[in-house]
């Protein structure tokens, strides 16, 4: 076996898709401009990002684009003063965006609310004043435990406006997970709702919020704000709990925006917990704002007429950067949906796209696989002609899933923009633009201003075609500024391979410089002396029409040391049988070659996932080897 940690790549995908000529003509950034931007950024990394920062408004400009004297605690735009909410909201009120829709929200029962920039601005101001009345000040932590509601957006922006730090906790999390996160950041305030609608049911959220605070648990919390969503009776604790609408009723429509130092924390957010205990990632006002604004507007080619929909919950980084901050910084209209994607039936997403005229649809592979399972008849019932761009994030998307999305949702016209990034990176890092040549299953190239490399364990670049560790070799503006109260763990990202940022993913570069994600470094499988990324083996399985979802892990083998085992969820109409096992093994062998021997296959009704829908292979591994599972608070079946 190769001691450097090199991976073999067995998957070959040869399809290349060119953008339609019309798309290239209309794009904000054409191929020549993209090349020029890459060249400029490669020659003058800081100059490129300084130019990006110049597109935004500042109370005071920076003394230094990047202060690296405390590396790896990099400080972008040192000396600058700003507030992301000024750029996401306040400044639009002075422009033609004032009366444009900022937010379109739809509840699961079918109710809907729309806010122009001006209306959202006023709501945020009123709630910002209410927060100040509750004694919340700059630097205080506010935990927002909310479903996707307009008030969730308002609470985030109001918190940031007054300089406090928000930490979103997904509404599907348990009292225990919520308590952990509250204690971690020592929040003074908890914002929640009485409940929310999910799959036709009312989920009582206030009860769970109360349970998180029971006894002396999380006693840092002084007050709780409760948004009335379902108008269900909830127990209010006198002196601690306040209804949102009671609080804002008396408040004024104007509120001062706190002047923040560039590196002042904007929010903290815990990672999905796919590979271990979630980490409290901290992002700042200035760097995050610049990185998210530049990358979102370039990748999604934002135009004044766009209606942008990221299906991610606000509790994930995608909900922050692509659901709320990015679109508002760009002055576009963002869509938010409260409920279950299959309620009342499997066409709900398509009905939303059609009714609001969504032009950009950004989602996760797990959602696409679920929709594939229901078949193409659901999207066919709706007019999806408003769509012009599609996007994917969160997990490797297999070429077959990519093609399904492209054909059935994108009319074989809308590019699928597969974006690689992390909670830690804050912004898109490796992704195409609409004008890029696309290869289904590849995240294409690092964006201008992002320097990524595939290396061995010593940090030497891998030869073309050989898999290795994905690293980022230069700081980027939206990088996390640290981990909450855990500098040592933050340093680990930069010391695994000295001097570069270790992403924890494996990838390879092809002869065109295109990057193919092969999965997580923790999930590399050893088959017959070959190290292979889980994503490639899973993509090979997915080439069989019977496979809905699949996870592949390495299991101990007496003779070979390790062998591959597949866990497969079948599509409706296919039977779990010995014949099917043979067929699937053959498919993998055909796709990847004779090396890729699958030792065993187990059929499952479902796979263990994080709440954000990512497959947790570590749970399957723990089951197989009888070892501990570790922290599951980010998982679906935590209890
Ligand atoms: P934890 O770090 O706690 O294990 P997590 O890594 O799932 O959780 P996130 O920050 O939500 O937390 O996810 C980032 C990860 O998601 C990336 O490191 C990568 O593994 C995966 N990912 C994101 N986008 C893509 C993509 N386009 N292609 C392949 N993988 C992706
Ligand atoms: Mg991670």
UniProtKB/TrEMBL annotation:
Domain AMP-binding enzyme C-terminal: 536-614
GO MF term set: acetate-CoA ligase activity; AMP binding; ATP binding
Signal sequence range: none
Gene Ontology process terms (BP): acetyl-CoA biosynthetic process from acetate
AMP-dependent synthetase/ligase domain residues: 96-484
EC numbers for this chain: 6.2.1.1
Alphabetic keyword roster: Acetylation, ATP-binding, Ligase, Nucleotide-binding
A matching Pfam family: AMP-binding_C
Stretches assigned to the Acetyl-coenzyme A synthetase N-terminal domain: 36-88
InterPro entries: Ac_CoA_lig, ACAS_N, AMP-bd_C, AMP-bd_C_sf, AMP-binding_CS, AMP-dep_synth/lig_dom, ANL_N_sf
Cellular compartments per GO CC: cytosol
Enzyme class (EC, first level): ligase
Family: Belongs to the ATP-dependent AMP-binding enzyme family.
PANTHER family: ACETYL-COENZYME A SYNTHETASE, ACETYL-COENZYME A SYNTHETASE 1
Protein name: Acetate--CoA ligase
Native species: Pseudodesulfovibrio aespoeensis (strain ATCC 700646 / DSM 10631 / Aspo-2)
């Amino acid at each position: 076996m190769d001691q450097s940690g090199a991976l073999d790549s067995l998957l070959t995908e040869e399809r290349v898709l060119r953008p339609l000529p019309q798309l290239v003509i209309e794009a904000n950034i054409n191929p020549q401009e993209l090349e020029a931007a890459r060249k400029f950024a490669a020659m003058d990394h800081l100059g490129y990002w300084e130019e990006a920062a110049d597109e935004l408004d500042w109370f005071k400009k920076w003394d230094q684009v990047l202060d690296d004297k405390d590396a790896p605690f990099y400080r972008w735009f040192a000396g600058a003063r700003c507030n992301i909410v000024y750029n996401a909201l306040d400044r639009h009120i002075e422009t033609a965006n004032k009366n444009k829709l900022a937010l379109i929200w739809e509840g699961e029962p079918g109710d809907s609310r729309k806010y122009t920039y001006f209306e959202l601005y006023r709501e945020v101001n009123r709630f910002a004043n209410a927060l100040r009345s509750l004694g919340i000040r700059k630097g205080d932590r506010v935990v927002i435990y909310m479903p996707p509601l307009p008030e969730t957006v308002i609470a985030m922006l109001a918190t940031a406006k007054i300089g406090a730090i928000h930490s979103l906790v997904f509404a599907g999390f348990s009292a225990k997970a919520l308590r952990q996160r509250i204690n971690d950041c020592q929040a003074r305030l908890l914002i929640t709702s009485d409940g929310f609608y999910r799959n036709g049911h009312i989920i009582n959220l206030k009860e769970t919020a109360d349970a998180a605070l029971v006894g002396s648990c999380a006693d840092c919390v002084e007050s709780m704000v409760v948004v009335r969503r379902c108008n269900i009776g909830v127990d209010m604790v006198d002196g601690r709990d306040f209804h949102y609408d009671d609080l804002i009723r008396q408040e004024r429509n104007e509120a001062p925006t706190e002047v923040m130092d560039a590196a002042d924390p904007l929010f903290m957010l815990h990672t999905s917990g796919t590979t271990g205990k979630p980490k409290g990632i901290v992002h700042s006002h200035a760097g995050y704002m610049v990185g998210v604004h530049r990358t979102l507007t370039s990748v999604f080619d934002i135009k004044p007429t766009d209606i942008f929909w990221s299906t991610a919950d606000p509790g994930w980084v995608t909900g922050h950067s692509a659901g709320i901050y990015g679109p508002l910084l760009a002055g576009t209209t963002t869509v938010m949906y409260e409920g279950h994607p299959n309620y009342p039936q499997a066409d709900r997403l398509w009905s939303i796209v059609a009714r609001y005229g969504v032009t950009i649809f950004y989602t996760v592979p797990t959602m696409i696989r679920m929709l594939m399972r229901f078949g193409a008849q659901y999207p066919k019932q709706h007019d999806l002609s408003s769509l012009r761009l599609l996007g994917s994030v969160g997990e490797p998307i297999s070429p077959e899933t990519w093609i399904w999305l492209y054909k059935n949702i994108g009319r074989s016209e809308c590019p699928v923009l597969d974006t690689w990034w992390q909670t830690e990176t804050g912004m898109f890092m490796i992704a195409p633009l609409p004008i890029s040549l696309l290869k289904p299953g590849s995240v294409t190239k690092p964006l201008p201003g992002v320097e990524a490399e595939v290396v061995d364990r010593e940090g030497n670049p891998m030869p073309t075609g050989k898999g290795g560790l994905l690293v980022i070799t230069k700081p980027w503006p939206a990088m996390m500024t640290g981990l909450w109260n855990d500098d040592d763990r933050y340093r680990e990202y930069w010391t695994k391979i000295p001097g570069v940022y270790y992403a924890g993913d494996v990838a390879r570069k092809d002869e065109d410089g295109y990057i193919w994600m092969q999965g997580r470094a923790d999930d590399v499988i050893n088959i017959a002396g070959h190290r292979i990324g889980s994503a490639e083996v899973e993509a090979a399985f997915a080439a069989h029409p019977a496979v809905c979802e699949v996870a592949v892990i390495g299991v101990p083998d007496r003779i070979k040391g390790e062998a591959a085992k597949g866990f497969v969820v079948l599509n409706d109409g296919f039977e779990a049988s010995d014949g099917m096992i043979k067929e699937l093994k053959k498919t993998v062998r055909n796709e990847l070659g004779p090396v890729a021997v699958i030792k065993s296959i187990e059929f499952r009704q479902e796979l263990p996932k994080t709440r954000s829908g990512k497959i947790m292979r570590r749970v399957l591994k723990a089951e197989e080897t009888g070892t501990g599972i570790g922290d599951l608070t980010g998982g679906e079946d935590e209890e």
